[in-house]
Each structure stands twice: as structure tokens, then as C-alpha cells.
Amino acid sequence: MAGPRVKRSAVELRTPRRTAWLWLRSMILTIRRELRNTMPFAELIVRAIVLVAVVTVVVLALVYVTQRSLIYFPGSTAPGSELLPRGAEVTELHTADGLRLASWFLPATHRSGPAGDRPAGPAVLIFNGNAGDRSHRLPLAEALTERGYAVLLFDYRGYAGNPGTPTEEGLRADAHAAIDALAARPEVDPERIAYFGESLGSAVAGGLATERPPAALVMRSPPSSLADVGRHHYPFLPIVDALLLDRYPLVEQVRGLRVPLLVLVTESDEIVPADLSRRVFDAAVGPKWYVPLVATHHNDPELFAGDKMLAAVTSFLDEWLAD
Which residues are CB-neighbours of 277 under 8 A, at least 6 positions away? Predict the structure, then answer.
């Protein structure tokens, strides 16, 4: 006969297994309650992430579409020929894609003998930066002609009233037209032509040098690449090389050059920092010189036709363009 049944307390019914289950159930309920309470904040975070992503995509799309307006700053006014010194000529370049570009040829003024009897001599082809026109480089050109060098100044497509729109490929075509015209001049020895590139013009000159090597190459404030300059000026944007329409990979280009190189910089350059120009110099493998100049900013007159700059350029050209 069974004995009397004993009523167990609630505590006695909680075996270790049941206790664990009750604890887990309690934790799940607690977590669900906390998630329910914090859902508005989590949703806010998600929405913020989505908003940032959308804004980033829109900004990148805008930059992609308008990027060339951030690179090239052409003026529409053509400089007048009245600015030219005596003996200079108004000339015209013809590009492979059918454009006609305005240019000026300045013969060397310190050459002996009548103009028609002078032997062909050295010359300098000047590549402008991304702003201004050939008239802004006229003081440099005149200074070089006084030192015995003929000079060709020209404006890129889209600049100074020229037809077309500036692009990396287009400026390369313009450069080819310029060297063809200068090398064909009877006053010029085609084996003694130097390139002088200013800022972005250094990248144009460097690109041309890979196909038409000069006797010497001068670069003033050369950018290592357009992507590097973009990262410096727009650090908040994810500059991706693949999204750039124009790249100007100057560091890559100079690695394959075997021509004498002179790099001119200023530590106070706010447009093309000196460390970017130093990368260009370090990548070059031929004879090279690095000359820092005292100037207060990228467009300081000292960097256009200052005495120290001209002294460095003249000494360099005299060594490599001599007979």
C-alpha cells in the first residue's frame, strides 16, 4: 500500500536542469526587452549609414562629372601680339585631330651673324600650367632668348580662345603638334631641344618625353600624379584612380626616361606640395638635379622668371644643350 504523498515545495521542483532553462528563458526575455527599447536608436544608426552612403555616391558622381572643371582653368581671351618683343612671330600649330592652336615663336637674340646665316641652335618648348595663357610665360621666354635659346610658347586646346576642350589625351596631341612645329624651324637644332614644364605642364612634358625624348627636361613644381594632388586638396573624398578621367601619372613616366632632369620646387607650394615633386625626382633614373627655391606660394613671381630660377635653368641648359 502506497504511503501518503508528500507535497514538494516549488524550490524542491527546480532541478539543476530546470534552473538553467529558467535562467536562459529569463535572459532571452531580458534581451528581447532591451532590443525593443533600443530599436529606435539602432534604426537611426542604420538610416545614418544609408544616408552617408547615398551622399557619398552623389558626391562621387558629381565629382566624376565635373572633375575636369576642377583641373583645367582656361581663359577665353587670346593675348594680343602687341605684347611680343621685336623679332618674335605669331605662329599656328596643327594638331593630329584637326585643331589649330595659337602660338608664339621667339628666336634667340644673342646669336651672332645675320638671321639667315645663323646655324641652327638650341631651343626650349614651354608647357604652361593649368591656368593662364602663353602671355604669362612671356617673361621667362624673353629671358631665355637673351641667353641664346629660341622659345616656342603655345596654348592648349580650350585655352586663350583656342578651339576644343582640354583633356589629358588632347593636351598630349597639342604637345606633339608643338614639338613638330619647333623641330621643323630652320633656326632650331632638333637634337638640342629642351622641355620646360610648369606644374601640370610638367606632366604634359613628361608624357611627351616618353615618346619624343628631349635633350633636357626642366620641371617646375611637378605633380607626382593627379590622384595624389586630388588627395591633398580633397582629403574627404575617396579619390579612386579608376574614376579619374585624366591621370597624368608622372612618376610612372619618369621611371622610363633617360634624359637629364632638373626639378625646381618651393617648400611653400600650396598647390603642388614639395613632397609630391620630390617623388618625381626620386623616381627619375637619369642625371638629375633638385633645386629648392625661396618663394612664398605656387605662383610666386620667383618661380616664373626669378633670378635664382633663371640661373639654375640657364646653368642646366648650358650644360646639356651645348654644341
Answer: 219, 221, 222, 223, 224, 263, 265, 269
